[in-house]
């Protein structure tokens, strides 16, 4: 049994919340219980010896009020040195926290209905919810009520606090626009069959060092079955998943060994107690793996505006300004996307120009450019596993290349990570970079240089493929030059509207 498996048996992981006040009062964490803090969304940040923590906060249904965003901004300002990241699971992330801060942070979050329970750890993580829910004319169903029902019933539930590894769920509303189901443990993809709206269910997607795209269960379930089916699948994973080797513990390995048909049979016979209805495949997005960008019409005549952050990084001043803009031009709500961006919905057409001017002033304009389609993980700045810098390096690259390549007529997705763990999905991007190190050319012993392996033309849309890994690696200082060449070459050879994968 691995150390973490033994620890989970010793203390039910969500009980770590009960120990946080005493750790905070003492100003130190029992090192043996450190790993369980993940279940409260809390990790040690790099370098661990300094004792600072990072925290992830879930945003259930991916929607938050302006006042809630102000609370997030306040926490970042008071405790997190003004750093604030929007993650690729629609959450917020703080850095530079001390254990003594955590009780007050949790209390402040509680005042606005937010929490961190299950934001990390071997449990059901934040459920990715279509940011278009209730807005876009093309959506099949408003998935927000289902997402809300999943919170507590799946994510954060004691029934799933001890899974073999992390477990991720996505809920899409518009198959033509979203493709994130391919890389989640369960992807619920809404579509319509014979005039009835239901969900195609995909299982066993996951990236990490070995990428697996999800497989269809071959079912069509009603909206009211989604939570029940989700619980059945998570239960089957909890009881049948592998626990001996954490590198082989994700659901994707069980699906690979059993096949989706056998796994479906287990789910139906041992957990649901009834067979699910067979169903056809839902159509999938052409540009899976890229955000819905820019200004888009809502079905009620208003507009939703997806603003592009730079690799998810904002700050308290920008967050407060966004809250004010959502109140001035929208209905006082904002959303987070699964691509480190944010959205202001419910904007009148006559207000768009003014809103865009204000967003431009914040460097958060709704751009359908590289800024909107590029994501990067935490990297060496804070992540203990990282081998390379990520966000700052990519931000510099975007600054250099965004204008030059603003004439791209299709999304061009760049995903970069600081190690093979694929938190920002390097295998399913047009141009994916995975951070690594190699011996320095200086010849000095134990001196390493940062490099990135290249993964070309991955996609989780219609093309549905893991990017091809090229030989060799790009030195960090040549990343911008390399990216520039790839995009320039693409533009020189593509036909109008042709994507990189095509
Ligand atoms: Fe850290 Fe690696 Fe994940 Fe990036 S991909 S956040 S470096 S573990």
TrEMBL record:
Annotated Nitrite/sulphite reductase 4Fe-4S domain residues: 120-272, 373-502
Entry-linked Pfam families: NIR_SIR, NIR_SIR_ferr
Keywords in alphabetical order: 4Fe-4S, Heme, Iron, Iron-sulfur, Metal-binding, Oxidoreductase
Ranges where the Nitrite/Sulfite reductase ferredoxin-like domain occurs: 47-110, 297-361
Family: Belongs to the nitrite and sulfite reductase 4Fe-4S domain family.
PANTHER family to which the protein is assigned, alphabetical: FERREDOXIN--NITRITE REDUCTASE, CHLOROPLASTIC (PTHR32439)
Protein name: Nitrite/sulfite reductase
Organism: Deinococcus rubellus
Lineage: Bacteria, Thermotogati, Deinococcota, Deinococci, Deinococcales
